[in-house]
Amino acid sequence: xxxxxxxxxxxxxxxxxxxxxxxxxxxxxxxxxxxxxxxxxxxxxxxxxxxxxxxxxxxxxxxxxxxxxxxxxxxxxxxxxxxxxxxxxxxxxxxxxxxxxxxxxxxxxxxxxxxxxxxxxxxxxxxxxxxxxxxxxxxxxxxxxxxxxxxxxxxxxxxxxxxxxxxxxxxxxxxxxxxxxxxxxxxxxxxxxxxxxxxxxxxxxxxxxxxxxxxxxxx
Length: 219
Hints:
Elements: H1 3-18, E1 21-29, H2 31-43, H3 50-64, E2 72-73, E3 76-77, E4 85-87, E5 89-91, E6 94-96, E7 99-100, H4 108-123, E8 137-141, E9 160-174, E10 177-191, H5 197-212
Parallel strand pairs: 4-8, 8-9
Antiparallel strand pairs: 1-10, 2-3, 4-7, 5-6, 9-10
Helix pairs in contact: 3-4, 3-5
């Protein structure tokens, strides 16, 4: 193993053996999210990704459900007042998670620009230590690989990680009418020592509501 693969191996083994993982999936109607992204990308020079929009929605949902943002260190629960979003970036020979610090204070545009900047630095191997430490919640997106659902592994000492899956069209019943909508599953893995199933489910439900009414993120 090279240095990166050895580090990934050690961290994933530690996470899987020490943290009791539970994963919950929720299906989200992202038709309005798809439309919002298309409109945003038509109206300006900056191009938004689905990860950007989901990151902003996660910040809002984490404010309502802060326990998912609290790391565990030993027997201590760290009630971190700041939301430091880790964004998993796939590299040719591994994976790295740069961190957007104090995401709760950033607009959608600011979040998007910082995610893009950190992702580019990750691919160019130019990240500094401060940019890959201190995360409190991680997002990992495999939607571009046509993945329907998966069980993401928590990035310790964090207590939760959100897996983002592919967006696809399917028939949906709305008020007894069958219509074609864009849908997506979200997969949340969480540390059951700290987070109960109902608590995780409430976070996912809040996240679903935000993503299904995405204009609220712009207000």
